[in-house]
Amino acid sequence: MRDLAELLPLGVASRVDLTLATSTTSVTRWTSSGQLLHVHPGVVMLPSAVDDPHARARAATLWARGPLSHCSALMLWGVAPLIDDPLHVTVSADRSPRRTTGVVVHRTTVPLSIAHIDGIPLTSLARSLVDTWDLAHRARKGRLPGGLARRAVIESVRTRRVRVASLRSESAARGIFAGSAALGRLLDLVAGGCESELEIWGVKRVLPGPPTLPRPVQQHAVRLGSGRWIRLDAAYPDALVAVELDGAAFHGSREARERDLRRDSALAALGWAVLRFSYARLMAEPEGCRREIETVVRARLATC
């Protein structure tokens, strides 16, 4: 078994490659004795690697001779959680691999941009996001975790792992697909500065703008007296009003509250009025929050 582990350091290999490195007799003996498993036609794996997500992904791409794609690629990109079977791969439309357990094959006429992570081929992050969005909007209810594609798009743009322009380009290359209009609307919001679902909620339901007030600026950069730059969730720069939308995950701890207070004090020293709204209040009283923002901005503009 030690020899096999040395021959398959990644836990998986094509039967042809392993045969070339050893012999047909050896490979047949190993598979007959259970020391190697046939996981897909032409692909063998060590029993110890069966539950390894990377080994399973590698096996799927070896069998398909195509990259990991859709939500399976997002898992490897690190922007989506591990999802149980099946794994998704994509091949060109002129190929039709025969079926195998635990792998869904997608065929495409759109040229593939392929990257590699740990030696595993996968579709580019932009392509993976658009493909997953399409799949999520075509899939029967429950086939994909709710909101997976949406969260992955927002997080990938927020962390600057992908540009909105790249997602628009991939979307345009696909033409009309399931949920394409909804993806376009989401890209408009994240391009405008929304970095979370809470900020999207704020733009749609809370932040007042034209014609009653100037349009708020999202992710507005301010240099504090210390020289450090910060970004505001939303701001009305002419009125020096900052609006902070506090998500429960990042503003609920004592340390986070202390950090927010220090930040607010530094902004106040520069003449900014900070309006901070909790997640609970934003959800329960969006109209009340909106009226409060409008009142303060109007009052500040009147004295400028």
Overall description:
- The chain is 47% helix and 19% strand.
- It has helices spanning 2-7, 15-21, 24-33, 53-64, 70-77, 125-138, 148-158, 164-174, 180-191, 197-206, 248-251, 254-268, 279-284, 286-303, and strands spanning 12-14, 37-40, 43-45, 87-92, 103-108, 114-117, 120-123, 217-223, 229-236, 241-246, 273-278.
- The protein has 14 helices and eleven strands.
- It starts with a helix and ends with a helix.
- It is an alpha+beta fold and 304 residues long.
- It has three domains: 2-49, no CATH class; 53-191, no CATH class; 198-303, VSR Endonuclease (Endonuclease, Chain A), CATH 3.40.960.10.
- It is elongated and about 90 Å long.
- The strands form four sheets. It has a four-stranded mixed beta sheet, with helices on both faces. Strands 1-3-2 form a three-stranded antiparallel beta sheet. The protein has a two-stranded parallel ribbon with strand order 4-5.
- Helix 5 packs across helix 6 and helix 7 runs parallel beside helix 9 (180-191).
- Residues 237-294 form the Restriction endonuclease type II-like domain.
- This is Restriction endonuclease type II-like domain-containing protein.
- Pfam families: MTES_1575 (PF18741).
Strands of the widest sheet, in order across it, are 8-9-10-11
Average the pLDDT over all residues and give the rounded result: 92
Number of helices: 14
- SSE run: HEHHEEHHEEEEHHHHHEEEHHEHH
* Amount of helix: 40-55%
Report, as a whole number of angstroms, the end-to-end distance: 79 Å
* Outline: elongated
Give the structural class: alpha+beta
Largest sheet: 4 strands, mixed
Number of domains: 3
Query: How many strand units?
Result: 11
**Cα-atom Rg, whole angstroms?**
26 Å
Beta strand %? 15-25%
Stretches where pLDDT is under 50 for at least 5 consecutive residues are: none
